[in-house]
Design goal:
The structure holds two protein chains of two kinds.
Chain A (H helix, E strand, L loop, with lengths): L2 E10 L2 E11 L4 E5 L6 H8 L7 E6 L2 E2 L5 H7 E4 L11 H6 L10 H10 L15 H14 L4 E5 L7 H16 L3 E5 L3 H7 L2 E6 L2 E6 L1 H4 L2 H8 L1 E8 L2 E9 L2
Chain B lengths: L8 H18 L10 H37 L11 H15 L1 H4 L3 H21 L5 H25 L3 H11 L8 H19 L2 H6 L4 H6 L4 H23 L5 H9 L7 H26 L7 H24 L2
Helix pairs in contact in B: 1-2, 1-13, 2-8, 2-11, 2-12, 2-13, 3-5, 3-6, 3-7, 3-11, 5-6, 5-11, 8-11, 12-13
Classes of the chains: A alpha/beta, B mainly alpha.
C-alpha cells in the first residue's frame, strides 16, 4: 500500500518540525528514513502511520486521504512500531504479541505463533516482558507489529539495542515482507544497513527532505556530509555497501 | 510473579459473591428463626435484601472503576478517589444534609451525591482539557479532590446544628445499614449504567498497555476512552458514594490483588475486579454485622483499617521493585 505525502507541513504545537514534504512511499519496498537527531525522522514516521494530522498539505493511504479513513480501517492498514518501548504491565510476551490482533478482533494463534517465530522468541513466549532484556523486549514489540498483518509497516529505529545478528535478521525479514507486497518504512541510524537493505532512502536534514531516491544515489558523501556534519566513508566490501562516519567536520 | 492467567479466577469469584450474598441475606442482628413467617419475610425483604443488593452494586462499582482507572492511568496506585469523583459525591451529599434537603426528601441525600459527582466530573474533564493525557487527568482530579475536602470541612464548621454536623461525620464514614429499597432503586440505574460503560473498555485498556501512540495505532480513540473512563466512574462511584458514603480502598486493593491472577491483562481484570469488589464489600459488611451488630464500627472505617496496612505494604514493595 502506498502512502503519499503532498506538500505536507508537520508541526508539534507551535513548532514546525518538517517543511515541504512531498514524497510517495513506494509499495512493496523498504524505505529507509535517515538523518541526524532532531531532523524530524520520528515525526515523518508518525505522519506515515496516520498518527499525526498535517498542519498543511495532504496525506493519503492507497489514494484515500487520511481524514476519510475510519480509525478501524487505519488500524488494519498500518502497523506502527514506536521508538518508545514501554510495556506498562508485566504481560507475557505472547500476550503482548496478541495485542497486535486487536484491530482484527481475533487472537489468531497461528498468526501470533508466526510472529513469535519470525522474531526468534518462541522460547520467551510465556515469560513476562518485564523479565526480558532490552533487545528481547524490542523483538517482542516487533512481533506485535508483525501480528497486526498490515500492508504498511512503519518502524522507528527497530534495530536500536539489537545485536548484529538480530539486526541483520530483522532487515532480511523486512526485505522478504516487501517482496510479499508489504510496504516498509523504517527510520534508522545504521547507514550501512540502509545502504544494503533499503530500496529507497529518504535523507532528512534541518526539518526538510535533503535527498531521496535509490540508496546508491542518496547515500553519497556529497549528500551525507553536510547533513550529518561528519566526513563519510562510502565504499564496498565484498560487493556489500559500507557507509561509515569518519570524523566531525570542522 | 508468574504471568500465567488462572482460567478459573472469574468463575470462582462469581461463586464466592453468590455465597456471600446468600450469607448476607441470612445473617443479621434480628434472628429469623424467632420471628413469625411474616416478620421474617419483612426483615428479609425490607432490611437485608436492600443491604445485600447495595453491597453487590457498590462493591462492583468500586472494584470495576478501580481496575479501569488503573488501566487507563497505567498506575497500580490509582483509585476512584484520585480523580475527585468520590469527593464530589461526598460534597453533594454533605450539602444535602446541611441544607436540610436530606431531611425533607427521602432521596434528597443520594440525589445531592449524584449531582456532586456529576459536577466533579464536569470540572475534572474541563480542567484536564481536550487533549490532556493521564497526567493532566490525575492533576485535575487531585485538585478537585482537595477542593471538595476543604469545602466539606467548611460546611462542617459552618454547620449551626450540631446534630447535622454529627450526621455529616457519620455519613462520611460510609455504611450500608438502614438503607431501603428506595436507595436501591435510586442507585441501581446509574451504577449499572456506569458498570456497563466501564466493562466495555477492556479492548482499549489492553491497547494502552503499549503506550498511547500504539493504542492509537491499534484503533483506540484516546479522547473517547478518557471521557468514557471518567463518565463511567462518575456514574458508578458517584451513585455508590451517594447512597453509602465514602468506602475507601476497595477500588485500590481489589484490582491490585487480582491482577497477577489474570496474567496482568487489563481487559481480564475488569470482570474479576467487579466481582472481587462485590465480594470484599459484602464480606466486610457481613463481618461488621457479626462483630459489631449495634453498628459501632462503620463499613468505610473497616475498609480503611484493612486498606491502610495494605497500602503501606504496596508502597514498600513498589519501593523494593524500584530499588537498584
Amino acid at each position: 500500500m502506498t502512502v503519499a505525502l503532498k506538500k505536507v507541513r508537520l508541526a508539534l504545537g507551535d513548532r514546525v518540525v518538517l517543511h515541504d514534504v512531498d514524497i510517495a512511499v513506494p509499495t512493496g519496498q523498504v524505505t529507509a528514513v535517515v538523518g541526524p537527531n532532531g531532523a524530524g525522522k520520528s515525526t515523518l514516521l508518525r505522519a506515515c502511520a496516520g498518527l499525526l494530522a498535517p498542519e498543511r498539505g495532504q496525506i493519503a493511504f492507497a489514494g484515500r486521504p487520511l481524514e476519510t479513513l475510519a480509525r478501524a480501517e487505519l488500524a488494519r492498514a498500518v502497523a506502527y512500531l514506536p521508538q518508545e518501548r514501554a510495556v506498562h504491565w508485566p504481560l507475557s510476551a505472547r500476550a503482548v504479541v496478541a495485542l497486535g490482533r486487536l484491530p482484527h478482533d481475533d487472537a489468531d494463534p497461528e498468526v501470533i505463533a508466526q510472529a513469535l517465530g519470525a522474531m526468534d522468541i518462541e522460547r520467551l513466549a510465556d515469560r513476562p516482558v518485564s523479565q526480558l532484556s532490552g533487545g528481547e523486549r524490542a523483538r517482542v514489540l516487533v512481533a506485535r507489529a508483525l501480528a497486526q498483518e498490515a500492508p504498511l509497516l512503519v518502524a522507528d529505529e527497530p534495530t536500536a539495542g539489537l545485536d548484529p545478528a538480530h539486526a541483520l535478521a530483522l532487515f532480511t525479514l523486512f526485505q522478504r515482507l516487501a517482496t510479499e507486497g508489504r510496504t516498509i518504512v523504517v527510520a534508522l541510524h545504521d547507514l550501512s544497513l540502509a545502504a544494503r537493505f533499503a530500496h529507497h532512502v529518504v535523507l532528512l536534514a534541518d526539518q526538510r527532505i535533503a535527498a531521496h531516491g535509490p540508496p546508491a544515489d542518496v547515500l553519497t558523501p556529497r549528500n551525507l556530509e553536510p547533513a550529518f556534519g561528519v566526513t563519510m566513508l562510502c565504499t564496498n566490501v565484498n560487493g556489500l555497501p559500507i557507509v561509515a562516519p569518519v570524523s566531525t567536520l570542522p | 510473579m508468574s504471568p500465567h492467567a488462572q482460567p478459573y479466577v472469574t468463575p470462582c469469584l462469581a461463586v464466592l459473591v453468590l455465597l456471600l450474598a446468600l450469607a448476607s441475606l441470612a445473617v443479621g442482628p434480628a434472628g429469623l428463626s424467632f420471628s413469625s413467617a411474616d416478620q421474617a419475610w419483612l426483615i428479609l425483604t425490607e432490611i437485608r435484601l436492600p443491604r445485600t443488593l447495595l453491597g453487590l452494586l457498590i462493591g462492583a462499582a468500586l472494584g470495576l472503576s478501580g481496575a479501569a482507572l488503573q488501566g487507563y492511568l497505567r498506575n497500580p496506585l490509582a483509585e476512584p478517589g484520585i480523580i475527585g469523583i468520590s469527593g464530589g459525591a461526598a460534597l453533594g451529599a454533605v450539602l444535602a444534609i446541611h441544607t436540610g434537603l436530606a431531611a425533607s426528601l427521602v432521596f434528597g441525600l443520594p440525589l445531592g451525591g449524584l449531582v456532586g459527582a456529576a459536577g466533579a466530573m464536569a470540572v475534572v474533564l474541563w480542567l484536564a482539557g481536550e487533549r490532556g493525557g493521564p497526567i493532566t487527568l490525575i492533576l485535575s482530579g487531585v485538585a478537585v479532590a482537595s477542593l471538595t475536602t476543604a469545602l466539606i470541612a467548611l460546611v462542617l464548621t459552618l454547620s449551626q446544628n450540631p446534630f447535622a454536623a454529627v450526621e455529616i461525620v457519620y455519613w462520611l464514614m460510609g455504611s450500608l445499614s438502614d438503607r431501603s429499597m428506595t436507595h436501591v432503586w435510586l442507585a441501581a440505574p446509574p451504577i449499572l449504567a456506569g458498570l456497563a460503560v466501564l466493562a466495555r473498555l477492556g479492548r482499549d485498556l489492553d491497547a494502552l498497555t503499549l503506550g498511547e501512540e500504539v493504542a492509537a495505532n491499534l484503533g483506540t480513540s484516546l479522547a473517547r476512552l478518557r471521557l468514557l473512563v471518567v463518565a463511567g466512574t462518575a456514574l458508578a462511584v458517584g451513585a455508590a458514594t451517594a447512597v453509602s458514603g465514602t468506602i475507601g480502598f476497595v477500588g485500590l486493593i481489589v484490582p491490585h490483588i487480582l491482577r497477577p491472577l489474570v496474567g496482568h491483562v487489563p481487559s481480564r481484570l475488569l470482570p474479576a475486579s467487579a466481582l472481587g469488589g462485590a465480594a470484599l464489600v459484602l464480606a466486610a459488611d457481613l463481618a461488621l454485622r457479626i462483630v459489631s451488630p449495634a453498628g459501632g464500627i462503620r463499613l468505610g472505617v473497616l475498609t480503611a483499617l484493612i486498606g491502610t496496612p495494605f497500602f503501606v505494604w504496596l508502597v514498600v514493595s513498589t519501593r523494593r521493585e524500584l530499588a537498584p
